[in-house]
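Sharing in case it's useful to others searching the archive later.

Someone asked me privately for the predicted structure of Rid family detoxifying hydrolase, so I'm posting the question and my answer publicly. Question first, with the sequence:
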Amino acid sequence: MSKRIIHTDAAPAAVGPYSQAVAAPAGTTVYLSGQIGLEPGTGELVSQGFEAQVRQAFANMSAVVEAAGGRLDQIVKLTLFLTDLSKFGTVNQIMAEIIPQPFPARSTVGVSQLPKGAQFEVEAVLVL
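And my answer, the predicted structure tokens:
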């Protein structure tokens, strides 16, 4: 699968580790449910710390991507949910470490609550 990165100077440039849009050729599309920072073995939050929850949520998402037969570079769209948008920079930094370039399209949403008191959730669309 080869995704095609869409960029135009007629719209604002990406302000973080994401692409304006991604076109995916015909293939199997996998819609991943949101992942929060739960430890797989216990079902409990990995920590009350924001960064630890973000890293665990991405690790959980990565495990689901692999289980679907995919790779992180096949993600075409991410949606991030944060209970505190002032921590957006931390998420950008962690995401840039984990997700390979060229980055997928992305949306970020501020929410009042997430399941189990989590502070961060990530969901993805993957094209195999």
